[in-house]
Known about the structure:
Elements: E1 13-17, H1 21-24, H2 26-37, E2 41-45, E3 58-60, H3 67-80, H4 86-92, E4 93-94, H5 96-103, H6 108-115, H7 119-131, E5 135-139, H8 141-144, H9 149-162, E6 173-175, H10 182-187, E7 194-195, E8 199-200, H11 204-214, H12 226-234, E9 240-244, H13 248-251, H14 255-263, E10 267-272, E11 284-287, E12 296-299, E13 304-308, H15 321-331, H16 341-351, H17 360-363, E14 368-369, E15 393-394, E16 413-418, H18 434-437, E17 445-447, H19 449-455, E18 462-466, E19 471-478, E20 486-490, E21 518-524
Parallel strand pairs: 1-2, 1-5, 2-3, 4-15, 5-6, 9-10, 10-11, 16-20, 17-19
Antiparallel strand pairs: 7-8, 12-13, 13-14, 16-21, 18-19, 18-21
Helix pairs in contact: 3-6, 3-7, 3-9, 12-14
Amino acid sequence: MTNSIAEIEDAACIFVIGSNTTACHPLIARRIFRAKEKGAKLVVADPRHIQLSRFADIAVTQRLGSDVALLNGMMHIIIKNGWHDTAYIEERTEEFDGFKTAIDNYAPDKVEAITGIAQADLEKMAELYATNSPAALLYAMGITQHTTGVDNVKSCCNLAMLCGNVGVRSGGVNPLRGQNNVQGACDMGGLPNVFPAYQPVAVEANNEKFAKAWGKELPDQIGYTITDMIQAMIDGKLKALFVIGENPKMSDPDQNHLEKALEKLDLLICQDIFLTETAERADVVFAAASVAEKDGTFTNTERRCMKVNKAIDPVGDALSDWEIISKLSTAMGYEMNYEGPEEIFKEITTVTPSYAGMTYERLGLDGLQWPCPNTEHPGTQFLHKDQFTRGKGLFHAIEYLDPAEMPDDEYPYFLTTGRMFAHYHTGTMSRVSPHLDIEQKTGYVEIHPEDADKLAVIDGDTVNLATRRGEIQVPARISNLVKPGLLFVPFHFAENAANILTNSAFDPIAKIPEYKVCAVKIEKAA
């Protein structure tokens, strides 16, 4: 997030797109409700009529995968009405003219044809966002999990810059991370192309810096993304896979294709707190300590690094993740002999400029937000206050592209996937909790009443869902949360695994798969 969670309360307008916030980020949703109580305008765009839509000043249900057209349409209206911040654009951005030329092509009638959003609703969305400042833009995986995920994010940035909402308190572009330490894992170099703090591995100076710190010559080529790994397994280029705290058997798209890839491995190692569907087929399983059983730090969605304190000793033979990795590394010939997580954190601060001013003592109870470059620095509440990291903010001319797979005569429905309130990710933790499991014990598919009538399906009937990749059986849930022609399946349930259906097509830059859109057919089960 460019801004902080607490700032949401003081926004004059909040635009939520591609995020079912109450179900997936309930504490952030509470901040949105507090802002509403203070008079903030709320704009919601989501293919489903989510809970947050009920409280919005304007809520729309755009066609799956049409976000670029929606955002371009809003910006077309904002520029046409002179609602954009010309002083901010001139002073703090560049490439506006080329961007504007592209935006000129997204008149409301064209956008309505693509998105299904009425022109009057598009006008209201644009007006509320542009004329109520500061405006915070919040998004989640409904924006990123597309073959145009990078374009979607750039379009969100375009909109925020257009109205001068980046580098101001209670504004910004704020991706809501899907898990507690996604931000921290990325900060620590959990990406194939960077060292910690997003320092590119292919830059010689960076490579030399980390080689010196770690006492080992390092490769300078970019590694595989997850989607690259799967194909590399199929091609025999990747022989072993070490999975830490992840359940790809349930979370990666096209499960049947993934299963073929896993079968070709010589070695599969899983490290987790429960025996996941992936761990069940592993050659080696390392028992990891849970969050309550270890010390360390997490960095959350607002860039806040916080200390985690052990409440109980690990159960059985479980070890902290750092201990397992250290022992494995030492056994493989590179010694890691840390005394504990604080020693590791001190090393982090020496090679990670954005964490340089942090210490365990300074983290205290509330943590610190990066960048925190020195021990006198208080941490950074919001980014880009006076200028962007690159100097000037860059406008991108983004053109709308269809999703990789559209409905046709054989597969006439849209399918989207996501989370529901009672369960978390692949259900590894939440489904072993009796209190959560009783809320929802199995998967389901949401079907609009009109479609249910055509299919002669009633609530609770078992239906067959099939895509070009596979087929599942799942109970029907008749619901007005989806529009006619759209089906929704949560992805928490192994017995109705949504990722058997999902498309493995991915964004060419970020390599994130298009979990949110594919074509599907449905029929009542015999």
